[in-house]
Amino acid sequence: MKQITFEEAWQACKEAEVRLPEKPPVVEPQACDELLDVLKNYDLFLVGAEGVLHKGKEPCENAITAANSLLLLGKKVHVITNDAHNTGAHVAHNLFQMGYRFTKEQITTSLDEISAFTHLPGQNWGYISTRVNPIPHLTQNLPSITVDNFPDSVENILILGTGNWNEEGQNLLIDRSRQIKEIIVANPDVAEYGVDTKELVPTAGYYGHHLADFGVNVRFMGKPYRNIFEYVLRKYPGIPKERILVIGDSLHTDVLGARAYGLDAMLVKTGVLGDKDINALCEESGIWPNYIADKM
Fold first, then answer.
1. CA 232 → CA 59, 78, 237, 274, distances in Å?
2. What is the pTM of this model?
3. Which of 165, 226, 268, 282 is the most exposed place for a label (fewest CB within 10 A)?
4. Comparing C-alpha atoms, which of 63, 12, 18, 2 is closest to residue 293?
5. Same structural domain for residues 266 and 189?
6. Is residue 11 classed as helix, strand or coil in its secondary structure?
7. Which residue segment(s) compose the domain that 145 sits in?
């Protein structure tokens, strides 16, 4: 599996900014130790998963205590993750094994958002995924695209997971870019930590933005795009935006997505930016959270 450095991932994020939401106004982040420092200001907490609740299979520092305390206090909490491999039910099960007490109704993944489609627009679809037939009502009659299996009839592609994808496959997509009408990318993240490894690996967003640079029509689902926030917030009518806080570990997905949608954002240092100069990265990217916390 291809591995990339943080610098390569950061550069990919910067190059993708032309397709990301417009950057919100600059704010001066408030430093805080943990989420409980700002608890009284919000009624609904939209929480990321990887880098916020856990890193790989290990819970992040203080996250179990903080998350379960929110639930005990009667606060509304909803996990939003760009995970395009698992449904909310699967994520809930995995988090329960770690000690979290979320129900499946309190978790939305990118796969859930795509699964809400009753059909895919247009015809002649294929899909790229690390799993066979990941969304049965959408994918059961579609070809699974690999380097060795790329039917000439495919004009539209759903990219769910790229764990088995590689540069050879990407070059094949580029060669066929003129025949591709649309690509839907379920995970806009450009990198994540590989399974059982501390190394970053490129994800669907990395390959999707690369294809968009070649003129392919690419539609992204999940954070930082407003569609997933709208999808989740329909479950919580009546809560004003100023009473909602998004908690994440990424500037280009969590923070940008939240603030572009009019929500406050807290960046926690338990994820990929934990050992970086966050203020310098905010200055460079022009993306600023309302809060910077050592941990959730």
1. 24, 8, 10, 27
2. 0.93
3. 226
4. 63
5. no
6. helix
7. 118-220
**Domain membership flag for residue 14:** no
Q: Is the peptide bond before 240 cis (omega within 30 degrees of 0)?
A: no
Model confidence band, residue 118 (pLDDT cutoffs 50, 70, 90): confident
Per-residue confidence band for 127, with pLDDT thresholds at 50, 70 and 90: very high
pLDDT (tens digit per residue) in 80-111: 999 998 999 999 999 999 999 999 999 999 99
Q: Which two tokens stand for residue 151?
A: 């039917």
Q: Is there a domain that residue 143 lies in? A: yes
Helix (H), strand (E) at residue 230: helix 226-233
Q: Give the pLDDT of residue 196.
A: 60
Q: Once rounded to an integer, what is the mean pLDDT over residues 26-54? A: 94
What are the Cα distances from residue 219, in Å, to 23, 132, 141, 153, 170? 19, 22, 22, 20, 17
Residue length of the chain = 296
